[in-house]
Write a structure and sequence with these properties.
heterodimer; A: about 140 residues; alpha+beta; four-stranded mixed β-sheet; four-stranded antiparallel β-sheet; 3 helices; about 30% helix; B: about 80 residues; Ubiquitin-like (UB roll); five-stranded mixed β-sheet; 5 strands; about 25% helix
């Protein structure tokens, strides 16, 4: 299940839903929640705006969840990413995986968030005391 | 017609996010279309010369030698920074 949305999400509710969906079969549910930091590249960040490529974003996230399902023994995978204006402390991204065993759940979560960062068409623009700037991609 | 799309800093530099274009005669690849757009002036020439830019055809990332044809949606964008 993937979602791209402006609104906040509730990690607890998402985990509960994932757990209920795999009740009895799942021995492990792992998740990662990404938050907006108040400092980036040495500058205080007061606000963040996330732009994305509607249509392609959903396709990439669907493919990513499907890849995780085939690479590891998962019962279900979840990816949620927010777009639009965000503030420090806000939740920005959530990935979760349910599996019979913890290793598959952990590794699938790491794979989904790592690959999302390099492949999913999102761009961050941040407000700092020096003005508005596009966040530069990491070289690696 | 092809649908062109530009995102993030590139959209700001070019002053446009999308455009419908009659595919010019002789243009069959992304690289050729990029070069054709660069003849529009200095801003286009410089912005599209950035080697870090990614291109997508019909919402899948492709290399510069990928084919383009009538009806395609072609996008240019800087490296992604989500998550």
């Amino acid at each position: 299940m993937i979602r791209v949305q402006q609104a906040d999400f509730d990690p607890g509710a998402e985990l509960e839903q994932l757990t209920a969906h795999c009740a009895g079969r799942a021995g492990a549910v792992a998740s990662f929640t990404g938050l907006v930091r108040d400092l980036n590249e040495g500058a205080a960040v007061s606000r963040l705006v996330l732009e994305h490529y509607p249509g392609m974003t959903e396709k990439v996230l669907e493919a990513l969840a499907a890849q995780a399902m085939t690479r590891w023994q998962l019962l279900d995978a979840v990816i949620i990413h927010r777009v639009g204006p965000l503030e420090p402390g806000d939740r920005i991204v959530f990935v979760a995986a349910a599996s019979a065993h913890r290793k598959d759940a952990f590794r699938a979560c790491e794979y989904m968030i790592d690959t999302l960062k390099t492949d999913a068409p999102f761009w961050k623009q941040e407000d700092t005391p020096e003005g508005r700037r596009w966040v530069a991609a990491r070289e690696n | 017609m092809v649908q062109l799309r530009f995102f993030a800093s590139l959209r700001e530099t070019l002053g446009t996010g999308e455009e419908l274009l009659e595919l010019p005669d002789g243009i069959t690849t992304v690289a050729q279309l990029t070069a054709w757009l660069q003849t529009r002036g200095t801003a286009w020439q410089q912005a599209l010369a950035d080697r870090r830019l990614h291109t997508a055809v019909n919402q899948s990332v492709v290399r510069a030698d990928a084919p383009v044809q009538d009806g395609d949606e072609i996008a240019w964008f800087p490296p992604v920074t989500g998550g």
